[in-house]
From TrEMBL:
This is Phosphoribosylformylglycinamidine cyclo-ligase. GO terms for cellular component: cytosol. Residues 61-165 form the PurM-like N-terminal domain. Pathway: Purine metabolism; IMP biosynthesis via de novo pathway; 5-amino-1-(5-phospho-D-ribosyl)imidazole from N(2)-formyl-N(1)-(5-phospho-D-ribosyl)glycinamide: step 2/2. It comes from Isoptericola variabilis (strain 225). Its EC number is 6.3.3.1. It catalyses: 2-formamido-N(1)-(5-O-phospho-beta-D-ribosyl)acetamidine + ATP = 5-amino-1-(5-phospho-beta-D-ribosyl)imidazole + ADP + phosphate + H(+). It is found in: Cytoplasm. The lineage of its organism: Bacteria, Bacillati, Actinomycetota, Actinomycetes, Micrococcales. Keywords: ATP-binding, Cytoplasm, Ligase, Nucleotide-binding, Purine biosynthesis.
Length: 368
């Protein structure tokens, strides 16, 4: 009995398609490379020259890794793949700048059921464009074909980045004091968190992605695919502005505003967030109304229009707001930090999130 020999291609892996994808993306990747990046695209490892930072007295490396969750399902359903890279880069580099570190370089990983060169190149070109916005070099990556594990049109993306900060410039709870002011920075929409809830709401309502929604001024799919705002370079400019007196930063991702803000507050303090200080964007109101989602669940899942928060000294708040306005980042005063007294301790507070036992957050009032 004879049979045809099995090959890697017959098993579902097309290495030539992977090579073609690299050819299609390499120019976009190279545009993120400055003189500190050594070598080119396709090496076993990316090299980054740190000699420009030799003046640091005590340099600390900062690192972060993340993905974009089930938002990739929206990209796949719409067959639009050149924006998801902003979601990936934003989720990774904006965690690094929270400690005041400059994100130097990033790598990505894409797993797919079948390598379609044009689709993979679109994803990586989006990552590269977002890296340019963040001032971060894309120094390497990997595309893996997983036939039988993922459907041919399915893929997932993840990334990791490394940054550098001087030890005495690290931002965080140690710098925060009672009397500090919270400065909010607007999100561009849902960003990349809570899509399992959002997709469940959309399915429950029977809405299709091509449905035009008057509140959005575009289709549902276009709204859900709005790229994450990448704050890195703007936030670093703010942190370096001495007049702004930035003490801490938080990136509002999974868990919502209160949970992420609590992570950067010291024990014994409470941040009071005034819901009336901003108008929740339409996409969040639509999700709540379509799914009958309780306000608490919404607040614990989505960013509700706040993508980053800076904790600044009281006399630095005006300078911080002016700086952000000059950078084109919509911002406003969100609330204040106070001492957590016995009376406040009995209120409905958010604290002890992500394994961090620091300060607490209370949300007061009603949204506009």
């Amino acid at each position: 009995m004879t049979s045809e020999p099995l090959t890697y291609a017959a098993a579902g892996v097309d290495t030539e398609a992977g090579d073609k994808a690299v050819e299609l993306m390499k120019d976009a990747v190279r545009r993120t490379h400055g003189p500190a990046v050594l070598g080119g695209v396709g090496g076993f490892a990316g090299l980054y020259d740190l000699s420009a930072f030799r003046q640091f007295r005590r340099p600390l490396l900062a690192t972060s890794t993340d993905g974009v969750g089930t938002k990739v399902a929206i990209a796949q359903a719409m067959d639009v793949h050149d924006t998801i890279g902003f979601d990936l880069v934003g989720m990774v580099v904006d965690d690094i700048v929270v400690v005041g570190a400059e994100p130097l370089f990033m790598t990505d990983y894409i797993a797919t059921g079948k390598v379609v060169p044009e689709r993979i190149a679109d994803v990586v070109r989006g990552i590269a464009r977002a890296c340019e916005v963040a001032g971060t070099a894309l120094v390497g990556g990997e595309t893996a074909e997983h036939p039988g594990l993922l459907a041919p049109d399915e893929y997932d993306v993840a990334g990791a980045a490394t940054g550098l900060v001087e030890a005495d410039a690290v931002l965080g709870p140690e710098r925060v004091r009672p009397g500090d002011v919270l400065v909010a920075m607007a999100s561009s929409g849902l960003h990349s968190n809570g899509y399992s809830l959002v997709r469940a709401v959309v399915k429950h309502a029977g809405w299709e992605l091509d449905r035009h929604v008057d509140e959005f001024g575009r289709t549902l799919g276009e709204e859900l695919l709005e790229p994450t705002r990448v704050y890195a370079s703007d936030v670093l400019a703010l942190a370096r502005d001495e007049a702004a007196q930035v003490h801490a930063l938080t990136h509002v991702t999974g868990g919502g505003l209160a949970a992420n803000l609590a992570r950067v507050l010291p024990a014994g303090t409470v941040a009071t967030v005034d819901r009336a200080s901003w108008e929740v964007p339409p996409v969040f109101r639509v999700v709540r109304e379509l799914g009958g989602v309780p306000r608490g669940d919404l607040e614990n899942t989505l960013n509700l229009g706040v993508g980053m928060v800076a904790v600044v000294a009281a006399d630095g708040a005006d300078a911080a707001l002016a700086r952000l306005e000059a950078l084109g980042v919509p911002a406003w005063t969100l609330g204040t930090v106070d001492v957590l007294d016995d009376a406040a301790a009995g209120e409905d507070l958010v604290s002890g999130t992500k394994g961090v036992h620091g300060g607490a957050v209370r949300l007061v009032g009603d949204y506009r």
